[in-house]
Specification:
alpha/beta; four-stranded parallel beta sheet; three-stranded parallel beta sheet; 11 helices; 7 strands; about 10% strand; globular
């Protein structure tokens, strides 16, 4: 007869005691830090969230490590931005053989089309096509009343799981606020037989990490507070699909969060209101703020393309210098994942100087930094821009 040592007995007891609490929490893996923060707010006490790409880290150049495969394999929910942003996620999800709900949180936003050639920065050079922003055309379906009536969101979990279709999560929660009747949750992954054999992610197709070519759509949609509200609703949907018993809590958190984001948008618009639209011209190190430019009627120029892996040519730099001289741009910022050397070169040939304030575009700061949460990041970025444009 085997004897159980006191240490082993204690370990078994602690494991048994921990199991119910752990089972009550969703294990959530997000691709990068900004989505992770949103997930924590929406999920509250019912989730534990792991971010594959951490604070101050660049998802454009991230290479997965073996522990990432384990994290994704063991997850209940995997959250990705989509729009071709995470070049590493398709391979990682496939390698993990995860049975998780995989949700593309940008589904349903009003996308900025860039064209196929990301070296042609004129696509984002003048974000003055504000007619398609207009705040009544954001494909939100919630019309800023944040009842999240996603009747037309075809969220078929985009996985089309044939054998692992999360049958037990059939949206039987008939909540007034989250009318999931037509949620088909598609997640664009077309998973056959278990969920992850095909991985035909429409958002990620063809991205093998060799160059993070983002395709014809700008993936940095989280820089729009309007789009962020769609992200929040999609995260709540994914959580409700996977843990319907806690759906009411997820939806309540999502409504409160969406209202906070809407109020923040008004606050930040007020900061920029004293500045004439023609004076809202900003230079950044890489082209990650097109959605912010659209929301707040700004022109944001960058020598480097949408991906930090793209190379700015001498012609790109010369073009920015000419635009600064022609337009009278007032402020220049490096972002946390950008290359300051390009901006220093530009500054040496213009009257602009590179701001001492760093913007956060593709990643949050650590807990002690100025952008530890998504709300903090948006407030930090727009406040820094407004102050620089006003010369303060």
């Amino acid at each position: 007869m085997k004897r159980t040592t006191p240490v082993l007995s204690a370990l078994l007891l602690s494991t048994a005691l921990a199991t119910p609490a752990m089972a009550d929490e969703l294990s959530v893996v997000s691709s990068f830090s900004i989505i992770a923060d949103m997930a924590r707010v929406v999920g509250g006490e019912h989730v534990t969230v792991t971010s594959l790409v951490g604070a101050n880290e660049d998802a454009h150049v991230y290479e997965p490590v073996p522990t990432d495969v384990v994290s994704v394999a063991e997850a209940d929910v995997v959250l990705v931005n989509g729009l071709g942003f995470e070049g590493f996620m398709d391979r990682l999800i496939e390698a993990s053989e995860t049975e998780a709900t995989v949700a593309t949180v940008s589904n349903g936003i009003s996308v900025i089309e860039t064209g196929d050639d990301h070296d042609d920065h004129d696509d984002h050079g003048d974000h003055d096509d504000h007619d398609d922003h207009a705040h009544d055309e954001h494909d939100h379906d919630h019309d800023h009343d944040h009842d999240h009536a996603h009747d037309d969101h075809d969220h078929d979990d985009e996985h089309a799981h044939d054998d692992h279709a999360h049958d037990d999560h059939d949206h039987d929660h008939d909540h007034d606020d989250h009318a999931h009747d037509d949620h088909d949750h598609g997640d664009e992954h077309a998973h056959d037989d278990h969920g992850h054999d095909e991985h035909e992610h429409d958002d990620h197709a063809g991205h093998d990490h060799d160059g993070h070519d983002h395709g014809p759509e700008d993936p940095h949609a989280w820089q729009s507070l309007d789009a962020a509200q769609v992200y929040v609703a999609n995260i709540a949907d994914a959580f409700c699909d996977t843990a319907p018993d806690h759906c009411e809590a997820f939806e309540t958190n999502a409504r409160v969060y969406a209202a906070e984001l809407e109020a923040l948008e008004g606050e930040l618009a007020a900061l920029l209101a004293p500045i004439a639209e023609e004076d809202r011209i900003v230079i950044t190190s890489h082209d990650a703020l097109a959605y912010m430019a659209r929301d707040f009627d700004m022109t944001i120029l960058a020598p480097q393309g949408i991906s930090t892996e793209s190379e700015a040519s001498a012609a790109d730099v010369a073009r920015i210098i000419d635009l600064i001289n022609d337009t009278g741009a007032r402020a220049m910022f490096v972002d946390v994942v950008g290359d300051s050397r390009l901006l220093e070169q530009i500054a040496s040939e213009t009257s602009l100087t590179v701001s001492d304030t760093v913007l956060y575009t593709d990643a949050l700061s650590d807990g002690d930094g100025p952008a530890a949460t998504y709300v903090d990041m948006m407030r930090h970025n727009v406040t820094a821009i407004a102050q620089a444009l006003q010369g303060s």
